[in-house]
Amino acid sequence: MEYSEKSIALHLESRGKIEIKSKVSIKNRHDLSLAYTPGVAAVCTAIGNDKKKSFTLTNRANQVAVVSDGTAILGLGDLGPEAAMPVMEGKAIIFKEFADIDAIPLCINSVEIDDIVKFCKLIEPSFAGINLEDISAPRCFEILEQLEKELSIPVFHDDQDGTAIVTLAAIINACRLTGRHLKDLNIVINGAGAAGIAIARLLIHAEVKDVVLVDTQGAIYDGRPGMNPIKQDIAEVSNRSMLQGDLQTVLTGADVFVGVSRGNIVTAAMIEGMNNSPFIFAMANPTPEIMPELAYKAGAVVVGTGRSDLPNQVNNALVFPGLFRGLLSTGTRKVTPEIKMAVANAIAHSITPTHDSLMPTAFNEDVVQNIVTVIAEIASASIPQESDLVCSQS
Question: Is the pLDDT score of 308 beyond 50?
């Protein structure tokens, strides 16, 4: 189905995808006096005396900011903050529909690290969490690192760790389906931006056999000249065989391909050169690196993409609603590698995988609940808790 024209029509008709609705009724002067002046003064005074009460006397406990500068929109690149808004509104409706979280899209007119960090710090009193989105690498790594240190609420960059978590979940289920094991897999990741590097980090933490990242200059390896510090760091813990060359060269003999960069760059010949029955996760949006039918014809045993209209969608929409629901419900401030691993397993084990249904869909209600459960288990086992703020669902 062709979605471009229909999506434009939908957005024109509805003028975007979100709105704000009142949670209380204002039908008369009494109602207005309670919700606004004079009654609201007592609420303000209570919060002024104890700022933690902002989590119980306002919607803050159930409110997440979706922050973007529009520099890395889907597979479209840097189109600016105005063009980022349709994606951020999309995130907001997914938050609401699947986890009953109120998310506010905030697309800002700066690409400076200090500006973005300062902006998030300034809006902290209004929110229980911040979801960074579509901010290009390598700036996104420093922004997340600074905010995790300086804010008292959880910060999550979905393009990094959301994509990493859902990718690990997909590989777990591909292994369950085929009887393979993570420790035996040689994995090639095309794309060394926010998603690619975060995926590599998590797969290394999951103890796969090896991970090789490929960027526009070819394989990343320790000592390759001209790399930024983020790429150098990942080079030191990946590509143990010191493979060099382009994507086709590096894919030879690999077990898994993960694509998070550009569409239409993988050929049937590349897949035929991989190990028998490889896993292909062609997740570039909106155009996959190779279409599923071509990948299967070339010998792939499992194929997934990032698209909603194709089987085996591997998309971080499976991650962030349940993740934030769990973070807000438990007052957990930081998304640790332990949490990422647990969430990936929770997603994977929400279904029994098949070749046509490798992953649960976003409409599977077990996904959010399973994620919330594992985060609660980790939080209850943590001594001391990472935060004493318990933010319940409103």
Answer: yes
Q: Is residue 99 part of a domain?
A: yes
pTM of the full structure? 0.91
Whether 223 maps to a domain, the answer reads: no
In this structure, the strands spanning 155-157 and 63-68 are unpaired
Q: Specify whether 36 is catalytic.
A: yes
Please state the separation of Cα 129 from the chain's center in Å. 14
Long-range contact pairs involving 136-139 (C-beta distance under 8 Å, separation at least 24)? 136/71, 136/72, 136/78, 136/111, 136/193, 136/194, 137/72, 137/192, 137/193, 137/194, 137/197, 137/230, 138/228, 138/229, 138/230, 138/231, 139/71, 139/111, 139/113
Listed residue (153, 114, 146) closest to 130, CA to CA: 153
Q: What's the mean pLDDT when you consider all of the chain?
A: 94
Query: Containing domain of residue 149, as a range?
Result: 16-158
pLDDT digits (tens, 9 = 90+) for 175-187: 999 999 999 999 9
In a domain, 196, yes or no: no
Choice among 17, 51, 53, 91 that is catalytic: 91
Q: Which of 3, 36, 149, 183 is catalytic?
A: 36
Over the stretch 25-49, which tens digit does the pLDDT of each residue have? 999 999 999 999 999 999 999 999 9
φ, ψ (nearest 5 deg) of residue 267: -105, 165
**Cα distance between residue 319 and residue 335, in whole Å:** 12
Reduce the secondary structure of 46-72 to three states and give it as a string: HHHHCHHHHHHHCHHHHEEEEEECCCC
Whole-number Å distance between alpha carbons of 255 and 280: 9
Please indicate whether residue 96 is annotated as part of the active site: no
H helices of the chain, where?
Answer: 4-14, 29-35, 40-49, 54-57, 81-99, 113-123, 139-150, 163-178, 194-205, 229-235, 247-251, 268-272, 292-297, 320-330, 337-348, 365-381
Structurally, the chain folds into a number of domains equal to 1
The residue among 327, 328, 357, 364 whose CA lies nearest residue 342 is: 327
